[in-house]
TrEMBL record:
<protein>
    <recommendedName>
        <fullName>Cytochrome bc1 complex Rieske iron-sulfur subunit</fullName>
    </recommendedName>
</protein>
<keyword id="KW-1015">Disulfide bond</keyword>
<dbReference type="GO" id="GO:0051537">
    <property type="term" value="F:2 iron, 2 sulfur cluster binding"/>
</dbReference>
<keyword id="KW-0479">Metal-binding</keyword>
<dbReference type="Pfam" id="PF00355">
    <property type="entry name" value="Rieske"/>
</dbReference>
<keyword id="KW-0408">Iron</keyword>
<dbReference type="GO" id="GO:0004497">
    <property type="term" value="F:monooxygenase activity"/>
</dbReference>
<dbReference type="InterPro" id="IPR006311">
    <property type="entry name" value="TAT_signal"/>
</dbReference>
<feature type="domain" description="Rieske">
    <location>
        <begin position="64"/>
        <end position="157"/>
    </location>
</feature>
<dbReference type="InterPro" id="IPR036922">
    <property type="entry name" value="Rieske_2Fe-2S_sf"/>
</dbReference>
<comment type="function">
    <text>Iron-sulfur subunit of the cytochrome bc1 complex, an essential component of the respiratory electron transport chain required for ATP synthesis. The bc1 complex catalyzes the oxidation of menaquinol and the reduction of cytochrome c in the respiratory chain. The bc1 complex operates through a Q-cycle mechanism that couples electron transfer to generation of the proton gradient that drives ATP synthesis.</text>
</comment>
<feature type="region of interest" description="Disordered">
    <location>
        <begin position="1"/>
        <end position="21"/>
    </location>
</feature>
<dbReference type="GO" id="GO:0046872">
    <property type="term" value="F:metal ion binding"/>
</dbReference>
<keyword id="KW-0001">2Fe-2S</keyword>
<dbReference type="GO" id="GO:0016705">
    <property type="term" value="F:oxidoreductase activity, acting on paired donors, with incorporation or reduction of molecular oxygen"/>
</dbReference>
<keyword id="KW-0411">Iron-sulfur</keyword>
<dbReference type="InterPro" id="IPR014349">
    <property type="entry name" value="Rieske_Fe-S_prot"/>
</dbReference>
Length: 158
């Protein structure tokens, strides 16, 4: 037999003295590791849990944050403060509500308050301006409420 046509063993265990897995085993292992890695990335991309603190969370941990003026939020309306990721609504006169503006579905910021609902344009979720509860899915959880007060015409959250 020439060097090009050496006999191959029928089974990997027939290779006495050779160490390590065969090519097929290595390829199967690589495929499994790759599939697990892709699945992990996909799941991570769809969750907001275990995410680092956003700028507004860092500010709230340091104490209350003034987000704007009370006259910026009319009765029956709301305003999204993108710089702090907070949405403030005023369902009734002098009844202010504040929520984390990140949609619990995939973490997009809600975009506006219209006709009594807080809207997320990413996937169409809607939330009640009264309590942040889900009005329209795909979000399964409501917006996280935040403590809010109005002092000297300023909206203070935290």
């Amino acid at each position: 037999m020439t060097a090009q046509h050496q006999a191959r063993p029928e089974h990997p265990s027939d290779t006495a003295g050779e160490a390590g897995p065969d090519r097929r085993t290595l390829l199967r292992g690589a495929a499994v590791v790759g599939a697990v890695g892709v699945a992990g990335v996909a799941v991570t991309a769809c969750t907001t849990e275990n995410q680092p603190a956003t700028p507004h969370e860092k500010k709230l941990l340091d104490g209350p944050v003034t987000v704007g003026r009370s006259d910026d939020v009319a009765v029956g309306k709301g305003k999204v403060y993108t710089d702090t990721s907070i949405v403030v609504t005023q369902p009734a006169k002098d009844d202010y509500k504040a929520f984390d503006a990140r949609c619990p579905h995939q973490g997009c910021l809600v975009t506006k308050v219209d006709q009594g609902v807080i809207q997320c344009q990413c996937h169409g979720s809607q939330f009640s301006m009264n309590d942040g509860s889900v009005v329209r899915r795909p979000a399964k959880r409501g917006l996280t409420p935040l403590p809010v007060t109005v002092a000297n015409g300023e909206i203070v959250v935290g």
